[in-house]
Amino acid sequence: MKSYITKSAGSLNRKINYLQTTIINKVLPVIVLLVAGFFFIPYASMNFQNNDVDHINKNNEAIMFYSSTCSHCQKVYPKIFWHNVLNFKNADKQIQTINVQNPNNKHYISEFAVQETPTLMKPNNPDIRVVSTDVQVINDFSER
Q1: Would 132 disulfide with which of 29, 85, 108, 137, CB 3.0-4.6 Å?
Q2: What topology is assigned to 62-143 in CATH?
Q3: DSSP string, 45-111
Q4: Confidence (pTM)
Q5: How far is the C-alpha of 97 from the C-alpha of 53, rounded, in Å?
Q6: What residues contact residue 118 under an 8 Å CB cut-off, 6+ apart?
């Protein structure tokens, strides 16, 4: 009887060790990559995406003019990025982002009198705009 209990306990220990090894070697790296991706993807989109905008999309909820070197824009951009990801099927909920540092987008600065970034503007009424990093102010603006 004793040997059966010892064998059973040894088998249980091997199973526990296998599960621990599996979690540490397979599950934990996936979780780390997902968390890192959550923070890196908006940064990559803001800094490395070729944001050459050929026209203003009038169907969008708003337009955000930003500069990838602007610290205020760096604070707001991830929120706008994830807002767009969560609303990717609804064009009327999207916020079009325009990097005014892109040489092909510089004409928007004078065309829409963008004086500072981030500037959010209604596509159908350029006079309705807000310059803010406050998420609640941005949410209120986009829901108008």
Answers
A1: 137
A2: Glutaredoxin (3.40.30)
A3: HHHHS-----S--TTSSEEEEE-TT-HHHHHHHHHHHHHHHHTTT-GGG-EEEEETTSGGGTHHHHH
A4: 0.70
A5: 9
A6: 64, 65, 66, 70, 72, 73, 76, 77, 131, 132, 133
